[in-house]
Amino acid sequence: MTHTVPSLAALQAFEASARLGSFSRAAEELALTHSAVYRQVAGLEARLGVALFTRVRRRIVPTAAGLEYAGRIRHHLEQIERDTASLVSQAAMGRNLEVAVFPTLATTWLVPKLTDFQRLHPDITVSLSLRTQPFQFKDHPFDAAIYQGEHLWAGTQGCRLFPEKELVPVCAPAALAAGRAPSGLPAGMVHLHLSTRPDAWRDWYAAHGHDGAAAAAAGPRYELFTMVLAAAAAGLGVGLVPRFLAEGPLARGELCIPVEQPLPVPHAYFFAYPLQRPKSEALGHFESWLSAVARQAVPR
Fold this sequence. Notes:
42% helix; 5-stranded mixed beta sheet; alpha/beta; globular; D-Maltodextrin-Binding Protein, domain 2
C-alpha cells in the first residue's frame, strides 16, 4: 500500500499550491524554495498521471480533478494534525480533551456552562468539534462525545445526561396573523424538517390525529436544529424542535408555540468515551462535572 501513496512532502506542496494559487507562496509557507515545491508537484502529477494544475504564464489554476483532490488532501492533512495534537495531549498528562458534540447542543447548552468547568479546572483545556453523525472512536482523535440517541454507542462507556423528552412546533409570532389550520398550526405554513429526522412531522400528525401529514412532507430540510430555529424565526415556516433548545428564542419573543401539542420522543443525550482506552484524570473530572451539571439543569 505504501508504494501507491504519494509522499507527505509532495501532498503538502500540492495542497498549499492549490490553496494559495502560487508555487512561490506555497514555498514561503512551507519554508522551501520555489523549485522544490515545483518539483514536488510535478513529480506528483507524473506519479498520478493526472494534470492537477493548468499553467498560464506565471499563474497556476487547479484543474477540476486537482481542485477535488486538493480538498480531500486538505481534509486528511488536517486529520493528521488533529491526530498528532491528540497524541501530544495524551502524553502531556491528559490535560487536554477533544470532545465531539452536536452543534445545537454545543452552542445553546454546553458552551455557556463551560466557564464553570474552567473555573474548577483551569489546567484542563476542553476543545469542541461538531459532529452530527455517529462515528468510531478508533477512526477519530476524540477523547469523548456528547450526542443524542437512545442508548450508549457499542464499545463505549459513559453516562446518560438528560432526556430530550419532546419536540414542539415553533414559528414566528407574525405567522399566526394568517389564521390557523385545523391542526392549530399557522394556515398554509411550510413545514421545516431536520434531515436526520425526516418522519418527525408525520409522527406529529399521527400522534394528534390530524390530517395533513402528506402535505407536510414537502417542506425544506435542514441539517441542524439551529437552522430550523433560525428558519422558523425568519418566517420561513414552522419547525419541530426539542423544547429546551427553543427556550431562549421563546423567551425573547422570536418564536412562539402555535399549538401546545408536543411530540414525545425516546431520545436522550449521552456522554461516552471508548471502553478500551484508559480514562484519563482530565476525562474523569469532565465526566463528573458534566453529570452534575446535567442533573442540576435538566431541561424542563
